[in-house]
Design a protein that fits this description.
Largest sheet: none
Radius of gyration: 19 Å
CATH architecture of the domain at 1-76: Orthogonal Bundle
Number of helices: 7
Order of helices and strands: HHHHHHH
Mean pLDDT: 86
Helix content: 55-70%
Number of strands: 0
């Protein structure tokens, strides 16, 4: 039997729970304890596998110190446009990078850090692209 995909709104709410939890440097385990749940249940909420009820959403917003509406941010965005900025922030390393860069007060230094990360990403993309081309042509 094929596995049912999570509802897009459930996935969006889960993504936003994750973003705000990571912003608070809170583990899934700690959020679960505050809610009286296991970290596995929090994982299921964050993946959109399990739907979060209204009362639980209110509880989560209070624990995270955010307005309830913050858990629905992005719900009015057009679908099918690829990965949104909020999706990118749901990744722990992305959020850490943004937080660290925001703490750099020197604009020239901040720009240099961004340019360095962009060069690393471009270099990796070029390396991955040539590796894919070699594999596709039968060479390694």
């Amino acid at each position: 039997m094929p596995r049912k995909e999570p509802n897009p709104i459930d996935k969006l709410v889960g993504r936003n729970i994750r973003i705000h939890r990571l912003r608070k440097s809170m583990s899934q385990e700690r959020l679960g304890e505050a809610l009286g749940l296991t970290f596995q249940q929090v994982q299921k909420y964050e993946k959109g596998t399990n739907r979060v009820g209204a009362g639980r959403l209110h509880q989560i917003s209070c624990i995270l110190g955010i307005p309830l509406t913050a858990l629905f941010e992005g719900s009015d965005a057009q679908s099918g446009t690829g990965e949104s900025m909020l999706d990118l922030l749901a990744e722990p390393h992305s959020l850490r990078l943004v937080q660290a860069i925001s703490e750099i007060t020197d604009n020239d230094l901040r720009r240099s850090v961004v340019e360095l990360v962009e060069r690393i990403a471009a270099s990796q993309a070029a390396t991955n692209g040539s590796a894919k081309r070699r594999t596709a042509s039968g060479r390694r």
